[in-house]
Amino acid sequence: MTVLTRRIGGVQLEIIVADITTLSVDAIVNAANTSLHGGGGVDGAIHRAAGPELVAECRMLHGCKTGDAKITRGYRLKAAHVIHTVGPVWNGGTLGEDDLLASCYRRAMELCGKHNLSSVAFPAISTGIYRFPADRAAEIAVRTTIEGLSAAPSVGRVIFCCFSEPSAQLHAEALGRHGSPC
Ligand code: AR6
């Protein structure tokens, strides 16, 4: 379900409510952990849908630091690639969580640019098991992704793939503060 679409320059930004594993895009972003060996939440769903080849490739990456991102193929997913990023665990906001979350979106956009990808879908990183406040995370997600468009000139479509309507509303409010109606 599409909640909002906005255009910034030549780039279409969409807020949808969906299961990210079903999307046909160049890359879906995974909210992983530092081991990159899979887990619960969206990470578990992506690994289940991609098949065992995904964890085999992930094992060769030797983990990922919080705030960083690494790219693999998508295997049995419709998405050609998975960008694995590791969001911060929320600890009250005094341990650099905002900057680390922003870094996830920035690094993911940099990888899109480096690999010449044209479409990318993000889940609401850190807002599940890692307990980052959803409204604060949505603002960081939208703002940082828009800032990151300059590092990814190949990208023409960005999807914020929310898993609930309240999450989508928070992203829609954030996107409403940026960009113009499509
Ligand atoms: N499609 C889209 N969004 C989803 C899906 C899905 N299929 N499933 C969950 N979400 P979480 P985190 C939403 O917990 O907070 C894992 O164990 C979910 O509703 O998946 O970054 C990792 O291995 C929430 O809004 O990720 C790490 O250990 C958002 O995705 C840890 O969880 C993120 O929730 C990472 O925690």
From TrEMBL:
SMART domains: A1pp. GO terms for molecular function: O-acetyl-ADP-ribose deacetylase activity. It comes from Bradyrhizobium guangdongense. It comes from the Bacteria. This is O-acetyl-ADP-ribose deacetylase. Residues 1-179 form the Macro domain. InterPro entries: Macro_dom, Macro_dom-like.
